[in-house]
């Protein structure tokens, strides 16, 4: 099929989604919640079917050499499907943002103005090896009155098709148009390219995946883009940090799930505590199989440990400080001051999440005030940066830009606003 034909078909699907969305925008909260609960029940009832499709995707991706971090993201077994269904029910329980009045006032001439939340319209998602995103995006879009056009990638194609089949059937049974949630996976990569060029048909495009995917969409899209998070995530151990808190936090942030964007990739340590803290942190990380890419000062301290695996300690190079590993790998750097730590993080971070370990209130205030990232944690794991954990039920993604949203994107971030003026025949003088 020629690209022009693919482009025309993608635009036609987006236009059908827009027509369906205009009806959804008028649906009551009760109707939308009933739809979401029906989708959650259908996911539970068909978990085995979706899991079987996912098992085929997993086998094929493993045979093709996909790394363990990506395989973990691709996995969508019955437990994860049921957890996703639980997330849909949570979204149903949340307040409906559509129609909420942000502010309002009356002009001196009597014209009454209100700024009201309304849906964005047709939201396009381009993502890879993340079948849970299919459920998350569908539930958030439907609750917020939006339609969704999805490109979920080749690796999860069977899983996504099975999931969308379940969601589409639930939409029809509840009296909604199944054009509200559609895929362009059948067009392959050309489908994604067509989405990027479908300005006027798709209202906003959200890429979710590795840095290469995100930057390709940002660079090539004619449709407005919300840039979401590659995560070159840092933890800073301050001179006043508590080692008893720090080691479990670092282990959790690095090793709980290595293939996610909120996993910590860098450990920055103040020189005043480096000699006594780095041996503890390095030993714990190496015991968990983490390869440490250390600068010269950190390397010397870690290399002096009486027992360590030399294969897990390498000299850091300049490229390390900008790398999102998504693997059991962590960069380690010793800095002379809080100021140097902040400058280093702001220079190399992707703007996702950073954490400080400290008992010094002044240091915490300076770090949280000066770090230019979407989320800053204090004495806590970076793994908390998640829409579900934040109470959103799910997330569209974690925005690392400053417009139109920043941080985990839930229902509020999936709306824009409209001004409505109520008059009694007033005219502009």
Automatic annotation (TrEMBL):
What keywords are annotated for this sequence in UniProt?
Answer: Amino-acid biosynthesis, Cytoplasm, NADP, Oxidoreductase, Proline biosynthesis
User: According to the UniProt entry, what is the EC number of this protein?
Assistant: 1.2.1.41
Q: What is its main location?
A: cytoplasm
CDD domains in the record:
ALDH_F18-19_ProA-GPR
Looking at the Swiss-Prot or TrEMBL record, what is one Pfam family this protein matches? Aldedh
Localization of this protein: Cytoplasm
Q: Name one GO cellular component term.
A: cytoplasm
Q: What pathway is this protein a component of?
A: Amino-acid biosynthesis; L-proline biosynthesis; L-glutamate 5-semialdehyde from L-glutamate: step 2/2
Which positions fall inside the Aldehyde dehydrogenase domain?
Answer: 10-287, 331-420
User: Entry's Gene3D superfamilies?
Assistant: Aldehyde Dehydrogenase, Chain A, domain 1, Aldehyde Dehydrogenase, Chain A, domain 2
Biological process annotations from GO? L-proline biosynthetic process
The GO terms describing molecular function are: glutamate-5-semialdehyde dehydrogenase activity; NADP binding
Q: Which reaction does it catalyse?
A: L-glutamate 5-semialdehyde + phosphate + NADP(+) = L-glutamyl 5-phosphate + NADPH + H(+)
Record-linked InterPro entries = Ald_DH/histidinol_DH, Ald_DH_C, Ald_DH_N, Aldehyde_DH_dom, G-glutamylP_reductase_CS, Glu-5-SA_DH, GPR_dom
| Protein function | Catalyzes the NADPH-dependent reduction of L-glutamate 5-phosphate into L-glutamate 5-semialdehyde and phosphate. The product spontaneously undergoes cyclization to form 1-pyrroline-5-carboxylate.
Q: Write out the similarity annotation.
A: Belongs to the gamma-glutamyl phosphate reductase family.
Q: Which NCBIfam families match?
A: PRK00197.1, proA
Q: What is this protein called?
A: Gamma-glutamyl phosphate reductase
User: Which organism was this protein described from?
Assistant: Bifidobacterium erythrocebi
């Amino acid at each position: 099929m020629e690209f022009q034909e693919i482009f025309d078909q993608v635009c036609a699907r987006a236009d059908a989604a827009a027509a369906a969305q205009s009806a959804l925008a008028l649906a009551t909260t009760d109707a939308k919640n009933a739809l979401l609960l029906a989708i959650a029940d259908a996911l539970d009832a068909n978990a085995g079917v979706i899991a079987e499709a996912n098992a085929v995707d997993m086998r094929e991706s493993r045979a093709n050499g996909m790394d363990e971090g990506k395989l973990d993201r691709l996995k969508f077994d019955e437990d994860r499907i049921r957890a996703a269904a639980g997330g849909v029910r949570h979204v149903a329980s949340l307040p409906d943002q559509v129609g909420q009045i942000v502010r309002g006032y009356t002009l001196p001439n009597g014209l009454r103005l209100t700024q009201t939340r309304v849906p964005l319209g047709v939201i396009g998602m381009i993502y890879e090896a993340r079948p849970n995103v299919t459920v998350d995006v569908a539930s958030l879009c439907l609750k917020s009155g939006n339609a969704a056009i999805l490109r979920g990638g080749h690796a999860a194609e069977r899983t996504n098709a099975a999931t969308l089949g379940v969601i589409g059937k639930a939409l029809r049974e509840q009296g909604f148009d199944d054009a509200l949630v559609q895929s362009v996976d059948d067009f392959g990569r050309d489908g994604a390219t067509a989405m990027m060029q479908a300005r006027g048909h798709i209202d906003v495009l959200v890429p979710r995946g590795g840095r290469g995917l995100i930057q390709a969409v940002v660079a090539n899209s004619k449709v407005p883009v919300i840039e979401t998070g590659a995560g070159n995530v840092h933890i800073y151990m301050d001179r006043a940090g508590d080692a008893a808190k720090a080691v479990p936090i670092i282990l959790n942030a690095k090793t709980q799930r290595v293939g996610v964007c909120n996993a910590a990739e860098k450990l920055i340590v103040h020189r005043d505590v480096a000699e006594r803290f780095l041996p503890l942190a390095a030993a714990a990380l190496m015991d968990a199989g983490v390869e440490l890419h250390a600068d010269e000062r950190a390397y010397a301290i870690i290399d002096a440990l009486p027992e360590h695996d030399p294969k897990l300690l390498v000299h850091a190079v300049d490229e390390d400080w900008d790398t999102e590993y998504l693997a059991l790998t962590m960069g380690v750097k010793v800095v002379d001051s809080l100021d140097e730590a902040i400058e280093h993080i702001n220079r190399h971070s992707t703007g996702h999440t950073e954490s400080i370990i400290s008992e010094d209130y002044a240091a915490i205030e300076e770090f949280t005030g000066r770090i230019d990232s979407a989320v800053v944690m204090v004495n806590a794991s970076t793994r908390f940066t998640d829409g579900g954990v934040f109470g959103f039920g799910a997330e569209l993604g974690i925005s690392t830009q400053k417009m139109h949203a920043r941080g985990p994107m839930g229902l509020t971030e999936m709306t824009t606003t409209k001004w409505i003026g109520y008059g009694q025949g007033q005219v502009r003088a």
